[in-house]
Each structure stands twice: as C-alpha cells, then as structure tokens.
Design goal:
The chain is mostly helical. It has helices at residues 15-55, 59-87, 89-107, 113-127, 131-138, 146-175, 177-183, 188-197, 202-217, 223-230, 232-238, 240-274, 279-306, 309-330, 336-359, 364-382, 385-395, 398-416, and strands at residues 6-7, 430-431. Its main location: membrane.
Amino acid sequence: MTTTPRAVTASPATPGVESQGRWLLVFVLSYLALMADGADVMMYGLTLTRIKDDFGLSNVQAGALGSLTLLGMAAGGILGGWLSDRVGRVRVVVWALTLFSLGAGLLGLTHSFLQFAIVRFIGSLGIGCMVLVTTLVAEYVPTERRSLILGALQTGISAGYIVVIALSSWILPHHGWRTLYYVSAVPVVFALAIRFAVPEPASWRASRAADRKSQSESSTQGPSGARLRDGRYAVIFRNRQTRTLFILWTLASVFILSGFYGLNNWLPTYLERELHIKFSSLTGYMIGTYVVAFIGKIFAGWLGDRWSRRGVYVLGCAGAALFLPVIIFWHTRENIAALMLFFGFLYGVPLGTIGTFMSESFATSIRGTAVGGSYNVGRFCAGAAPIVIGYLATQFSIGFGFLVVGAVFFLSGVTALFIPDRLYDTERPSTP
C-alpha cells in the first residue's frame, strides 16, 4: 500500500479555524446522540426476558429479533454513509436520530412477534447511521487531541447503557417494558438541537465543493459515464489502498460487532439465568461494568494520542478475548463483581479507539461511504451472532456462546494488525 493521500485545496472557509471554535458544542450534542444510541441498543437486552414471556418466544426467536435489528442497522448505515458524503454528515445524523427515537417509542404499542420485528427493523435503519456521529466529530476536533476526544465521545454509549439500566430498575418492575420504550422516544429533541446548532464540517464542505468542480469538468464524458466513474464505491474499489482498507475494516467490524452485539443481547440473561443473580442486583452489576468501561474508553483515547491507535485497539481486543473464559470458568459469588468490573475496562478499550482509527483510514471525499459501508457490512454479517448464541444457549449454555464471542474479539485484533495507523488527518479535506 503505497498510495499517498492527497489534500484538497480548501475553500475560503479554513477548516481548522472554524472547527476549533465549534467542536465543543458539536461534542456535547453528539455525546447526547450516542447516549440515545447506547440506551436503545441496551434496552432490548434488558427487556428480552419480559418480551419473551409476553409474546411466548423461543430462544431462537428472541435471537432473531436481535439479528433483525442488526440487519436493519447494517442497511441503514450503508445507505446513510453514502448519503453523508453527498448531502452532509449533520443531515443524515438528524434523520437517523429522529427515526430510531420515534421507532423505539412505537415498540411499546406492539403486541406480537411480527409487529415488534417490523417496527424494530424500521427504527434500526436509523441506529445504523449513528456510526457517522464519530465521523462528524472527527472532522471537527484538533488532530493532537482527536483520539482522546473521540474516546471520551464513545463513553456516551456507555452513559446510555447506564441511564437505561437505572431507568429499567425502576420502570420495569412497576410499569412494565412498554413504558420503558415510550420513554425512549424523548431523544428526538436532541435531533432538533443538532439540526439547528451544528453546521456541516468545513472539511466536508471543501471536499464537496472540489467534488462538484471535478464532476463539472468531467461532464464532457457524458453524465452517465461521469457518475459511474465518480461514484463513491467506484472510487473506493478503484484505488488499491482504499479497497484493501475497506475489506480489512469490514472483516474487523464483522468480528468486533459479533462480539459486542452478542454480549449486549445475552449478558443480562446470562447473569440472571446462569449465574442466578437477582434482577435487583443485576442492575448494579451492569452499571458497574459500564462505568468502568468509561475509564477504559478514555484511557484508550489518551493512549492512542500518545502511542498508536492500532496498538491500543489490538491490545483491547486481545484482552477482552482472553478474559471472557476467566469469567465463565472461574467465577464465584465472591469474585464475580470484581471480574465484571475488570472486563468492563477491557471491553471499553477497543470502543475507545475504533472511531479515530477507522475515520483516519479514509479520505474526506469517501469517508462517510467507506466508514458507513465497512462498519455496517460488518453489522450485517454480525446479525447472525445473537441467533448463534441463542442456538448455543439451547444446545449447551450461554456461557459456551460467550467463548465464541471471545474468539471473534481476538480475530478483530488480528485483522487490525494489517491496517496502517494515522493515514489521514480528518480535520483537513483530502481525496484518495
């Protein structure tokens, strides 16, 4: 891979000046958006047992609902990534946040497996686009603090987990799972705030202007020929380096997301059914795990700025993979709390650096398409994970399924070894 990244000549609006003056506001609003994202993803795992009982679902059907969610996220993310390069990061994030917030609220009105599946799939199209929140912030924040800031941004997902776990401990026993979904429609307010307070990043605007100029100059070849040649995926797969990176990130995403979504869907049930932890205590275990994940993400971001995005990601994946068997085979009533806390830290490390690492792998002109595409093709393939764990839970145990989760974490780290570090500066416009 020897291709040299090229910078785009900036328009009169210099990216650095405007970004530095506004990135804190962008960070805060994006953090709230990721809190909503994290809350939505965790909510299904927390309500799974009650939904199963209410609808009379088998383990495989329950896993299928989780997998259908991931398939919708994949489809939405791929489309959203492509749209973000054409119409803007902010517009797509606003549309996505509105769709999945309202969709989650409507889940409380469903009364069958089919109704829940249809509404969940539509809402999950919006969830899939939320990976672009990281891309949006990456194009605002200064290079020297990017990994730390994006690591801190990723704690928004953990904050969403904690908020919904805390709410569920009060709402579920007294008001039922439907009320929890009604409350989840509130984040549509965040979408309105982002729509009116956050402009498109200057680097995206400069890159888009250069792209329009290039399309105008190539229009002599005919409209259809120019569109075919300049299509985002055509650009990605025509360039050897970008094509290789897209494939590697797709594989890394398949492995890491299979692990994350497998855990998120089945960890509450594992703690409740196989470790026999009462629901009143379960929320404490879960909150503790994700609070420590905060620390892991921020530490990963800090270390990524000072050392290597790739190195931190690889070590985080390997650590999580190797520690899962410790929880499964050596837990006791006395040590399970400590084991879960340490795993929470390891779990947070790859999440704290993946946003920076992936965003810096692609040029501005194709970043949304490449990040949204590779990450969400990974999601599509990872859609099988909850079903696989559901099957393994039926045949063996959920703990056995988590051993498979450990293996895919490890494979994601191995794949990342072949991805270069700090390839593009996301604050500056660039082309492959």
